[in-house]
Write a structure and sequence with these properties.
With 106 residues, the chain is α/β, with parallel strands linked by helices. The chain has a single domain, classed as Ribonuclease Inhibitor (Leucine-rich repeat, LRR (right-handed beta-alpha superhelix), Alpha-Beta Horseshoe), CATH 3.80.10. Helix content is 41%, strand content 11%. It has 4 helices and 4 strands, in the order βαβαβαβα. The chain has a 4-stranded parallel beta sheet, with no helix packed on it.
Length: 106
């Protein structure tokens, strides 16, 4: 499977752990999780997944509300992204993040 689109499924944070475990078993290159009611907690679950993933090249987390993301967690994001060797594209459009955060990762 090359692409998995789960836009608008309202996965919320409670489903991200299960989804991340399933994704570890698949070789997906593109994952779209737009508008799934994810918050910063769900975001960190996916960053943890990215740390060990070797196939994902594009991740779209747009249209989720990450306004509760703390600036201090940027170091965690750096760690996960530095550990990932395959990710080429990471989208955070319309996620209520600070402009500095978005500029840093785009």
């Amino acid at each position: 499977m090359q692409e998995l689109i789960l836009d608008g499924n309202w996965l919320e944070n409670k489903s991200t752990g299960v989804l991340a475990k399933v994704l570890r078993e698949l070789s997906i290159e593109r994952l779209r999780l737009r508008d799934n009611k994810l918050s910063a907690k769900g975001l960190m679950t996916f960053f943890y997944y990215l740390k060990t993933n070797r196939s994902l090249t594009h991740l779209d987390l747009s249209d989720n509300n990450f306004s509760d993301y703390e600036a201090g967690k940027r170091n965690s994001l750096d760690f996960y992204l530095d550990s990932n060797q395959s990710l080429e594209s990471l989208k955070f459009e319309n996620c209520n993040l600070e402009k500095d955060f978005c500029k840093f990762y785009f």
